[in-house]
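Possible race condition, two jobs.
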Amino acid sequence: MKIDMDGLCRLAVEAGKAIMTVYETDFAVEYKDDDSPLTRADSLSHSIIAGGLGELYPDIPLISEEGKTIPPEERAGWEMFWLVDPLDGTKEFVKRSGDFTVNIALVEGGRLTAGVIYAPYRDTLYFAADGIGAWKKEQGGEPVRIQTVKAGPGAGHVVVQSRSHPSEKLARYLETIKVKGSVPVGSSLKFCMVAEGTADLYPRMGPTWEWDTAAGQCIVEHAGGSVLGTDGKTLGYNKPTLLNDGFMVYA
């Protein structure tokens, strides 16, 4: 399906600006059943994105972290749907590190065909889609084409790691490879670091949700990289539980 990428990017930026209005206040923090934080910014961004996508593409269903739970049997036959994380990196938002994003992705026939990540604190936009490749736009400047950069033979990997999810399993894995450098960052920006060539490897050993990974995977794939699950296959979407196991992002 032909997607208006300019419109999709504007919607992500609009949601990001709304997030920043909350960020600049003494906001309250609630906690979900899984102890993950929730703020007014999460729900505000969800409302903007859900409303905007509903107007632009009323026939395409939506799965959002902050939306209602949709039973697997209801979505099993979906050939096309949006996957949205209105505020990815809420822990970083609460800590005021700046490493949080708005994630919007389109899944068609099991493939990620369009994706947008907007980092409102940095005013940096990443986007990708079939036919156009992957792009980065910083602080209102002109978009620049991005692509992954593979580590040379024997050169060692530049690894991007989570700020908020340390893992003993990850530490053990890193002991088995040659690490040239490490880039700590939060939210889906880790995917973006691989996509733009700042890092060439992002190992994630713990579970995530599909809305955490969809937009980032789309951008990485269109920049020349890949995202593989623990089974060695491309990370898939619209699974019965929407839960991912660990995965590896390769340049």
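Job #2 (started ~2 s after job #1):
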Amino acid sequence: MIRPFELLVGLRYTRARKRSHFISFISLISILGITLGIAALITVLSVMNGFGKELRGRILGVVSHVTVTGDDGRLRDWEGVARQAQKNPHVVGRAPYILGQGLVARGKNVSGVAVRGILPREEAQVAEFGARMTAGTLDDLRPDGFGIVVGSALAWKLDLAPGSQVSLVVPQAQATPAGLLPRFKRFTVVGVFRMDMYEYDSGLVLIHLDDAAKLYQTAGAVSGLRLKLDDLDRAPQVSEEIAAGLGAGFRARDWTREHGNFFRALKIEKTVMFVILLLIVTVAMFNVVSMLVVVVTEKESDIAILRTLGASPRSIMGIFMVQGAVVGVIGTLVGTFFGVLLALNVEGLVQLLERLFSMSFVAADVYFISELPSDLRWDDVAMVSGASLILGLLSTLYPAWRASQVQPAEALRYE
């Protein structure tokens, strides 16, 4: 236990004299290294938290928490299945859908898309398309109206706007006198949505459920039923309960099965980045070790005098632990301050740098999202700061132990 004596002497040793400028320089480098490491670690973890939060929100704003379908990939009595599913208290929304693939063509421009047939009023219960419309509304999708809602990236790619005519080609052949030809239908663009996620903005289109049934010839069946829950973390449990309640012939899949690997990969990547960036702090702690070793060598005569005055080896060890800990604490506090400050303002800072250098650091077609989000979590800050303080304390042990082993007679022999 460090007593006031060790604390006062250790703090006094941290103030360099005229002949100790080299030690002060090493101390400064150590503090800067710890500050840089802590700030970088907090900022990177916050950005990765932000990526995970944004991607989770945007993905689950398009896909369902739980999907119910038949064993053959079709659902014929979706309303009855919906009534049965809504007996579960965690189900707060449901919507049928028909899912297919197709090509959207306008002139010479063609793009492959996923086609989702929906009922606009029902879809509003499980997805966020209605709140993300930049032109038109989902209610503009009417049965037999053959209207289509496209993503903003696809609209830009094909130069589409409300009122534009496009052809939707589906991978189903129809027999004609000229042979088998792919089936297609002309649609009118009635709306544009923007989910701020390139994968969906460029590769997903919405049409009315009745139009999709005619286009894909589903014979009165739908592809499945999408469910929204009050707590998405309960999705695995709820999907099992719903599947058990529906009985044989039905399957229920939750979002953790469809996208769980992606979010687990993000979590693993965050852990790996924490370990890698913690090495920056560890390298800075080696500077603390070097500084204390130099101090111990320089202060051997002072140590010997303290020992002759009655200071115990334990007191000597405490003095140098205090000196090293001061460097670690200062570096950790300053690094935590700048790390939190940077994490809270990283989005604005990145936008400023993008304007200054006329370049994009986060390309939407590469990183799925077009901005750099940040989600500062205080448990991460506490973990990083705690790890730094522990490393700082550990770095003082060897030099402090070495100082406690100085023999007064040997140290004062040539004085």
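The chain has two domains: 4-58+262-411, 72-248.
Logs attached separately.
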